[in-house]
Amino acid sequence: MDLQHWLREAARSQQRWADGFGPYATHPSLAVDDTRFAEVFGEFTERLRDNYPFFHPRYAGQMLKPPHPAAVVGYTTAMLINPNNHALDGGPATAEMEKEVVRQLAAMFGFTTHLGHLTTSGTVANLEALFVARELHPGQGIAYSTEAHYTHGRMCSVLGVEGHAVPVDDRGRMDLDALEELLRTGRVGTVVLTAGTTGLGAIDPVHRALPLREKYGVRIHVDAAYGGFFTLLAGAEGPAGLPEAPWRAVARCDSVVVDPHKHGLQPYGCGAVLFADPEVGRFYLHDSPYTYFTSTELHLGEISLECSRAGASAAALWLTFRLLPPTRDGLGQVLAAGRRAALRWTELIDASELLEVYQPPELDIVSFFPRVEPAALSTVDAASERMLRQGMSEDDPVFLSTLRASAGAFAARHPKVTADADGGRVLRSVLMKPESEHRVEWLHERVEILAGNPE
Ligand SMILES: *Cc1c(COP(=O)(O)O)cnc(C)c1O
Fold first, then answer.
1. Which CATH architecture is the domain 331-452 placed in?
2. Which residue's CA lies nearest to atom 3 of ligand 1?
3. How many angstroms is it from 150 CA to the middle of ligand 1?
4. Is the domain covering 77-288+295-323 a CATH 3.40.640.10 domain?
5. pLDDT at residue 452 tops 70
6. Over the chain, what HEC string results?
7. Rounded to two decimals, what is the model's pTM?
8. Is residue 225 in contact with ligand 1, taking CB distance under 6 Å?
9. Which of 144, 226, 273, 305 has most ligand 1 atoms within 8 Å of CB, for mutation?
10. Distance 371 CA to ligand 1 centre (A)
């Protein structure tokens, strides 16, 4: 689609709508002269050049990419009106769109009933899930793995709840024996399982953890902020297909979080939280004197910790989902391409004499390190850091990222590497752009050159 054409259409459609309300004059205090604007805009775009090319296949670093053009046009068009999804009277159209996309997300996870809404981020979405968990299990703590997102520990402090970090196995998945040992103490009311850790994309065994919920009477929350959309590939044919069991089990958990601003092609400002039991809405009920007056049903603002939220976020996601729905044949194809790229690159690294796979990808994150002599954490760390830096500064640059592994995590995967430090960095590439699929050989070649050519 032609982004420039549709951005002009965005402005035009807003103008047509506005014209229906009759003429009015913009106040002189807001007037900006085009010559002056051009000047400042020039300075602004110049400053924006100080960025990494997230859109380009040569960027194979962090979990970052621009939104789909449909999301940009959807966001911009709605933003020109600027509805606020805190309540129906803040913008009925985008509030309705939000309910529709949330329903699609619930269906994607197989939730038969749900209460949910969009949030500004995965962190806030998780905070809401943990807030509800605290209300249902007062005085008890929350368990998450040592590989869980760092914000879980932080949010436990915010909520005044004890957080428990549970050890992981040699692939970064929660160790369920250790979890059960903790649950036996009775100190934990909620378990957070991560379906796709941010570092390596490890999937906690949700299906095997579920029986513990009944046995110990705990809640299970799934943090699928990064991994959630991969549920579309559960049980799919071909190399991109994923084991079904953990993903199908999410449908039986109490709550789940997914970030459309990661794999859902959206701009930042779009997370989502879903609860299986709509009754949890009672924990949010409040009485604001100035907002809700157009409907008797539960408003989005009544089931959210946040007040103002961009209606434009819901609009962008709605428009995107109409074109690339959260189904295996829709958005699933985008994720499948990234996953195939990750598998293919891992094969190449595995066959390389210069590089070594740190851990095979469960989703679309490739992790590796240069083979160095002597093979020790400190030399691997220094070489990884050098490759990261050198990669960005070449004429034909490649942008990677690093991941710090603890000595224990390293030893579990690569016992031959001497642990002469308490941890070390390895290289990590999130292949979340489908375009990466066609640049794997190039990426590999660049990275091999970096490994073989210390400055
Ligand atoms: C990204 C991420 C978060 C935090 O989400 P934000 O949208 O960055 O606030 C939480 N959990 C996991 C697993 C994530 O990958």
1. Alpha-Beta Complex (3.90)
2. 122
3. 9
4. yes
5. yes
6. CCHHHHHHHHHHHHHHHHHCCCCCCCCHHHCCCHHHHHHHHHHHHHHHCCCCCCCCCCECCCCCCCCCHHHHHHHHHHHCCCCECCCHHHCHHHHHHHHHHHHHHHHHHCCCCCEEEEECCHHHHHHHHHHHHHHHCCCCEEEEECCCCCHHHHHHHHHCCCEEEECECCCCCECHHHHHHHHHCCCEEEEEEEECCCCCCCECCHHHHHHHHHHHCCEEEEECCCCHHHHHHECCCCCCCECCHHHHHHHHCCEEEECHHHHCCCCCCCEEEEECCHHHHHHCCCCCCCCCCCCCCCCHHHHCCCCCCEHHHHHHHHHHHHHCCCCCCCHHHHHHHHHHHHHHHHHHHHHCCCEEEEECCCCCEEEEEECCCCCEHHHHHHHHHHHHHHHHHCCCCCECEEEEEEHHHHHHHCCCCECCCCEEEEEEEECCCHHHHHCHHHHHHHHHHHHHCCC
7. 0.96
8. yes
9. 226
10. 31
